Amino acid sequence: MKDWLKTLPKVELHLHIEGSLEPELMFALAKRNDITLPYASVEEVREAYDFDDLQSFLDLYYQGMAVLRTADDFFDLAMDYFRRAQAEGVVHVELSFDPQAHLARGIEMDVQIEGLTRAMRQAEREWGLSTALIMSFLRDRPAEEAMSVLERAGPYLELLDAVGLDSAERDNPPSKFAEVFARAKLLGLPRVAHAGEEGPAEYIRQALDVLDVCRIDHGVRCLEDPELAARLRDTQVPLTVCPLSNLRLKVVDDMRDHPLPGLLDAGLKLTINSDDPAYFGGGVLDNYLACHHAFDWNKDTFRGLARNAIEVAFMDEGRRRMLL
Ligand code: HPA
Ligand code: ZN
């Protein structure tokens, strides 16, 4: 099954590129930028990745990305990920990035976007990967700051495929970003949002009703609200589910308790993704494999999940037809 899952053409819709920073590259970039890390070795970094919840992960995630300073650093980060992804049978990657986390460290938007888009073009040339770029707002920061980031992204709107919403979900409801997402809509940008990861099903409802999103990132708590689950089934709004992330952040205690089989039975449009592969123990293939071990799904189920991701990806129609 592993060999078959590897050859299955897979599409990654939920990936934080900063969360693909492997400890080896973290050390290399720290050296290049003359930054002292609070770790003595790569092993020590990996040992620190023992999380209690989303916030305990986010603390290390924001700390780790401090090694990213130049456009070349962002380029190397993304190329490192694309190389691993294509080697495990990923054919299309949608990477989200967190501009506010870098702006706060004095790294300008043009530096971030130049490095990432240069890597996207090179991966397209080198491996035939297709890619899309999602600019995410930090929901634990003020909405006014997100709005100013959206304005600062003005010169780069053509390079963005969507905007998203991530970071600490509890007590930061989607409604906080109503105006920002309305502005993004006016600018012609598709919208996605994390909702129902740690936060309640109500946040999924708000993401749909207030932010007018076309996809929900995570969404695994939707079954707590049967009416919402029925709506998601009827509208086929996709959920980008990240099983290893949910396990490592203790959204579930055991993979066999993951709501995925229930979500599938409920007729929802599901996709399988990695979220932050360097922190959660693997990329897309590892997430498919974790499902194989926990749920013993057949090939048709995996084919269906991979197909769902192709159907709802931000990609040109010619590419979609070729992959379907
Ligand atoms: N959830 C919310 N925000 C994030 C995540 C996540 O898993 N990873 C990076 N930012
Ligand atoms: Zn995420």
TrEMBL record:
Single GO MF descriptor: adenine deaminase activity
Biological processes, Gene Ontology terms: adenine catabolic process; hypoxanthine salvage; nucleotide metabolic process
Keyword set, alphabetical order: Hydrolase, Metal-binding, Nucleotide metabolism, Zinc
Native source organism of the sequence: Modicisalibacter muralis
Domain Adenosine deaminase: 9-324
Record: residues binding substrate: 276
Catalytically driven reaction(s): adenine + H2O + H(+) = hypoxanthine + NH4(+)
GO cellular component: cytosol
Active site location: 197 (proton donor)
Protein's UniProt name: Adenine deaminase
Phylogenetic lineage: Bacteria, Pseudomonadati, Pseudomonadota, Gammaproteobacteria, Oceanospirillales
Cofactor note: Binds 1 zinc ion per subunit.
